[in-house]
Every structure is written in structure tokens, then in C-alpha cells.
Amino acid sequence: MHEACVIMQHVPVYFPERYLPPEQGHNATTILSQLTLYIITAMFFNVFYGGSGVIRDQARPSFSYIICVYGDIAMLKNKNIVLGITGGIAAYKAAELTRELVKRGATVKVIMTQNATRFITPLTLQTLSGNPVYTDMFTLSGDWDIHHISLAQSADIVVVAPATYNTIGKIASGIADDLLSTTMAATKAPVLICPAMNSNMYDNPILRSNIDKLSALGYLFMDAGSGELACKAEGAGRLPNPIDIVEEVETILTQKDLKGHRILITAGPTRESFDPVRYISNHSSGKMGYALALMARRRGADVTLISGPVSLPVPVGARFVGVSSASEMRDAVMEHIEGATVIIKAAAVADYRPSTPADSKLKKGAGRLDISLEKTPDIISEVSKKKGNRILVGFAMETEDLIKNARAKMKAKGMDLIVANELGLPGSGFQHDTNIVKIIDPSGNVEELPLMDKRDVADRILDRVLEISDAGKG
Ligand SMILES: Cc1cc2nc3c(=O)[nH]c(=O)nc-3n(C[C@H](O)[C@H](O)[C@H](O)COP(=O)(O)O)c2cc1C
Hints:
The chain is of the alpha/beta class. The chain folds into three domains: 3-60, no CATH class; 80-251, Flavin prenyltransferase-like (Rossmann fold, 3-Layer(aba) Sandwich), CATH 3.40.50.1950; 256-353 and 373-473, Rossmann fold (3-Layer(aba) Sandwich), CATH 3.40.50. The protein contains 15 helices and 24 strands. The strands form seven sheets. Strands 15-14-11-16-19-20-22-23 form an eight-stranded mixed beta sheet, sandwiched between helices. It has a six-stranded parallel beta sheet with strand order 5-4-3-6-7-8, sandwiched between helices. Strands 1-2 form a two-stranded antiparallel sheet. The longest helix is centred in the first third of the chain and has 22 residues, at 28-49. Residues 1-28 and 44-73 have low confidence and may be disordered. Flavin mononucleotide binds at residues 86-90, 113, 115-116, 164-167, 196-197, 201.
């Protein structure tokens, strides 16, 4: 992986390869233009937030936001997205979808069916996309383009959201009687269809068979969500959340270099109860493990995410197993280990639990309360015994002697990599969207990564997993 690194205000910032515009290559001009944009923004924040140059986490929370936003912007940079909007009540959500795609750097060209224009105005979509909105096949325009051909050819992906029962039926039957259906007939780009309709329409066997037919032909679908629909009915038929659609677009456009891998990831804290209402836990937010699950999914891996209690969305397409205590986490890991090719243990599992949890709530007494603790199951040791050819990645978080302790842990548990996390560095560790880690391998090599978005850290860890896997095949 090629990376451009700049030391800005004592904070090194990486721009991983996948964030750089592929068409232009990774030449100096490209990198420089990315960095100039970044530096101008960073200077702006420096002027307005002040400071001596060292960016302190709490003093400038916007810093990690800059990194996240820049990551997002570059993620879809230079991607041409044709967004088809059809005449369903969820058409208004296409405004948010357009906004989010543009925010992440995509060029969005909107095609609306005539019926879609009854639900939301082309002006709204034109304003949000910053591009002309196409509604008619036969309108004379100032250019010589045949729009359905030029749009079809320029698209990296065509997204139809919301997709009506009618439009899905037309595509499945090969009907091309308006600009959207004709563009879809003419494109060779991947097509992502997001149905949204009344639940009876969604259950209708004609729609089901149209979806099956199109899926078999390589069209991609997102399942509709469930809940209360605009028509007041309850059931499946809601347009997926626009953010989930964007995530799916990013997934489709990401190289599938982890295809064939089945990755088991643990994330979040565990809770060890000492009475029915109280527990001992830790500060883990689960963000690192969830970032790993998201990036592994995007890169084509089959992902099982075993998570302690956190409030994060499960990455689309990941198999989710929710647990609470260390012992539940152990059971879930042992149940799912068989099919896994890679195990990444990012969860912050409690080492100790109350030895005799009370059956009823402990009353506040006059004196002190002593709780005796016993060891929880040592999950990684058990995993290590069943490791076989699987690649095992662990995490270590220490307050002192980080490298020494991490190395000892890696050796004792037979890991292939350990990711060492130092507590107390600004922007690193629990709760943050960013992290500063060192990746250590069994030969003792230490790869020190600078402050990075957790998704980029995840990508780097997955790159290393892939290297180990490829070396094993050789
Ligand atoms: C108020 C209203 C809401 C509608 N919502 C939906 C919907 O959510 N999904 C759908 O498939 N059709 C819905 N329809 C029906 C479509 O508008 C209709 O099938 C139309 O022919 C779709 O045209 P299009 O696919 O060319 O956009 C709705 C109609 C009305 C009047």
C-alpha cells in the first residue's frame, strides 16, 4: 500500500491508497492537491481553535471530525453515481441520500421518473447534487449528448432509490420507455436497487419473482426495512436508511480482496453482573471492532461480529451475535470458530467477574461492600488451542511497557499479529473515532501507525492479514 504522509502540527496524517483518485494515479500533484486541501482546513481550525500546535484531543474535538470527513470525501471521490428516483413516497429520502453521496466526494447525476417529480422537485435534487437533473428522454438540451447513453456509460454505479414496484417490473421485463429504464438497459455499471413500497406490494409474488430474476442477472438489491409505512401499514417495505445505502455503494465500489475469507470479529466491552441491576464493565465503545467488521465486509469477507453491549449500527451484511458477559462471549466465539479463516479479537473482555452474584438487588448498608472476583474464561487461550491454520489477531491495551507486554501476550497466545494500543495518547483508545496503534508481528517487527481514523487502522490490519494469508498460500 502506498501512503502519503505529512507531519502537520506534530500530528502525522496518512492518506491511504484507496483514498487517492485512481484515474490520476498516485503522482506528486495528486497527493499535493489532497494535502493542500487538508492543510487549508487544518489551518482554518488552528486559527479558530488556537493552540500551540500540538492538537489536544479534548481541546479540539473537531480534529477527528476533519479526518473522518476527509476520509469520507475521498472514499467516493471521482466516482460517478447515477441516482434514479422513482415515484414512491420515500422519494423525499433521496434528498438526504444525494447530500450524503456528494458529501463523500461523488459526482451525482439524478434521473427522475415523471412520477417521482410529483413527490419531490427536480430543483431540490439539482441544488443538492450540483448537477442538472434529468427527467425526460426527449428534451432538447444545449449539448449533443444522448443522455441515456452518456449517463449509462459515465456511471461507476447506478443506484435506484427508492425503486417502485412498477420500475422494478419494467426493468425485469426489459421495458425501456423512459430515461431511467432506458439508461438502466444501456449501462454496464453495477446497478443497486433499493425497493420501497407498501408491505403487500413488497410481498407480492410478482415483485418477488422480478427481484429473483434480476438478482440472478447480477442486479444488486438492498432489502427493504420493516416498521410503520407511510400508508400506515406495518411490515416490510421501508426504504433502507440513506446512510446504509451509501455504505452499500462504498462496499460495492471497494476492491474485494478479502473474498473467500470468513472473519470472526469480537468487539465492545463485556458486563459482569454482581446483582440483577449492577455490573462491572470497561470503557470500550466497540468502535475499533465495528470498524474492522465494516471494512472487512466492504472488502468482500464473510463477517461474523460478536459484540458486547454497544450503541453502534451493525455493518450491513455482517452476521451479528450480541452477548453481554465474558462467558457468553466465550460460548459465541467457540460456536462460530469452526468456519472462520481469520479471528480478530478486538473486544475488551473483562478479566474478572464477581464470584457470587447476588440474586436480588444489594441494599445500601452502613459499611463498605466487598465484592470478591474470580477469573473469567481465557477466550484467546481457548481459541489459540483450536487455531489450526486460522490467522489470529489480538489487541493489547496497556498503560506501561506496551511493546514488551504486547509481545509477551502474542507469544503466549500464539497470535499472528497483535495490535498494541497505548492508553492516554490524545485521539487514541476507547471511545474515539481515531486511534494510534502499533502492529507487531511474531518476528518482532513493529509497524507504528500515526493518528488515523479507526476505519483506516482497520484497513491496515486487514492488509496485514491478507499478507499473512497470501504468504501462507505461497
Ligand atoms: C401517494 C402515493 C404513494 C405511492 N408510494 C409508492 C411507493 O412507496 N412504492 C411504489 O412502488 N409505488 C408507490 N406509488 C405508486 C407509484 O407512484 C406508481 O406505481 C407509479 O406508476 C410509479 O411510477 P414510476 O415507477 O415510473 O416512478 C404511490 C402512489 C401514490 C399516489
